[in-house]
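*** Query protein ***
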Amino acid sequence: MSRNVYIDNMPLENALELFINRLNECDFFNLQNEQIDVLQSRGRLTASPVFAVRSSPHYTASAMDGIAVESSKTFLASEFNPVRLIRGQDYIEVDTGDFVPRQYDAVIMIEEVNFIDNYA
């Protein structure tokens, strides 16, 4: 199955430098927080996490396109130590927002997966 890949990966050091530079540009490290009425909050950012009484969606959903897996089967996997997973047995393909069945506890980004026949 052919899939589109939308993200180019960059080295961790470059990503961290870019991230810290952007935080400095917006003066992130000097921000102050305040309490305001919810009606005044439109367009604002929260200073700490906000938790909903009821989640939406109400099911465990994939946050990205990829393959849903049992993380224990991929724990030591790397570019130099690949793991072969069987479609339908060790993984299922998921898109952003798809339901992730209970037996899977992780999603690997599609950009990090190489498909060969029925294996990932």
